[in-house]
Write a structure and sequence with these properties.
The structure is a single chain. This protein has 283 residues and is of the alpha/beta class. It has helices at residues 13-28, 30-35, 54-64, 74-82, 112-125, 135-138, 149-163, 203-213, 225-231, 237-257, 272-281; strands at residues 44-47, 68-73, 89-95, 99-105, 128-133, 170-176, 194-197. Strands 2-5-6-1-7 form a 5-stranded parallel β-sheet. It has a two-stranded antiparallel ribbon with strand order 3-4. Helix 5 (112-125) packs parallel to helix 7 and helix 8 crosses helix 10 (237-257). The chain starts with 12 loop residues before the first helix and ends with a helix. It binds adenosine-5'-triphosphate. Residues 9-12, 50-56, 175, 177, 198, 209, 212-213, 237-238, 241 line the site of adenosine-5'-triphosphate. This is Peroxisomal ATPase PEX1. It is found in: Membrane. Residues 40-202 form the AAA+ ATPase domain. It comes from Abeliophyllum distichum. Belongs to the AAA ATPase family.
Length: 283
């Protein structure tokens, strides 16, 4: 793993361009941003079906723009809640992937204070990209939680988002595959008001994703990714990744099964026939 930048992202060109603009404009034209009487919008909600690259593109953006990356994941918090006996690392943040900071520990569930804490850590780490993944599980619609804890979390988000100015150098991104579950107030102007839709990839985008993901794979010479991209209508980026890793595994098995002297010193390779048979059996 590890993100090294835009070259790891296949397709999603419009989204890449929007993100570049959002992140780069304030530093290119600081005076415009300082003098503008308007609140400039730099907070982003990525939404769309699972596995279509929302998390992936945000990590790539942080790396490509040399921003520190603070990532907070919803279900991680919930899992910790369920397993409250284990020592809970509520939020782990990685700064340029070199250090880890734990924001708060041995708490039981995400509370308003954690939201405040995360935003103040982000302000201290600026310029940075503060990312909330699976945001629907962190900030669902208010009014459905008897304890009121989640409602207070959402209220604190609203307060914090209203306080984030472009020039503080904190870019707030969130991602969800269920935008309908979010509290609508989060999406009002000045909050997470740049909505970017990550859809299933087109054929051209699938080809691009396959090329990106297979860069270091041992392909036989006959592999034709163009044909594979045409066979995989409806696949997400995550599905394409699974296809390639299944092919890799299968290639290793085939290699072991056919072990003989002629294999000596050779490596298992992924053939076109193998990719095609897996692609046509998946989905
Ligand atoms: P979820 O809603 O389930 O969190 P997601 O949209 O955030 O899904 P990712 O986690 O970003 O999806 O994608 C899963 C994996 O699929 C990534 O780790 C990456 O390897 C691969 N992938 C998805 N889309 C792309 C893409 N456009 N380019 C390269 N790889 C991709």
């Amino acid at each position: 793993g590890g993100h090294s930048g835009w070259e790891d992202v296949g397709g999603l060109d419009d989204i890449q361009n929007s993100i570049k603009e959002i992140i780069e404009l304030p530093s290119k034209f600081p005076n415009t941003f300082i003098q503008s009487p308007l609140r400039m919008r730099s907070n982003v909600l990525l939404y769309g079906p699972p596995g279509c690259g929302k998390t992936h593109i945000v990590g790539a953006a942080a790396a490509a723009c040399s921003l520190r990356f603070i990532s907070v994941k919803g279900p991680e918090l919930l899992n910790k809640y369920i397993g409250a006996s284990e020592q809970a690392d509520l939020v782990s943040t990685s700064l340029n992937k070199k250090f880890r900071i734990i924001v708060g520990n041995s708490h039981i569930e995400m509370k308003r204070e954690h939201v405040r804490d995360i935003f103040s850590k982000a302000a201290a780490a600026a310029p940075c990209l503060l990312f909330f993944d699976e945001f629907d599980s962190i900030a669902p619609k208010r009014g459905h939680d008897n304890t009121g804890v989640t409602d207070r979390v959402v209220n604190q988000f609203l307060t914090e988002l209203d306080g984030v100015e472009v020039l503080t150098g904190v870019f707030v991104f969130a991602a969800t595959s269920r935008p309908d579950l979010l509290d609508a107030a989060l999406l009002r102007p000045g909050r997470l008001d740049r909505l970017l839709f990550c859809d299933f990839p087109s054929q051209r985008e699938r080809l691009d994703i396959l090329a990106v993901l297979s860069r270091k794979l041992p392909f036989a010479e006959d592999v034709n990714l163009d044909a594979i991209s045409h066979m995989t209508e409806g696949f997400s980026g995550a599905d394409l990744q699974a296809l390639l890793s299944d092919a890799q595994l299968e290639a290793v098995h085939n290699f072991l099964d056919s072990e003989n002297d002629s294999n000596q010193g050779k490596m298992p390779v992924i053939t076109d026939a193998l990719l095609k048979s897996i692609a046509s059996n998946a989905k």
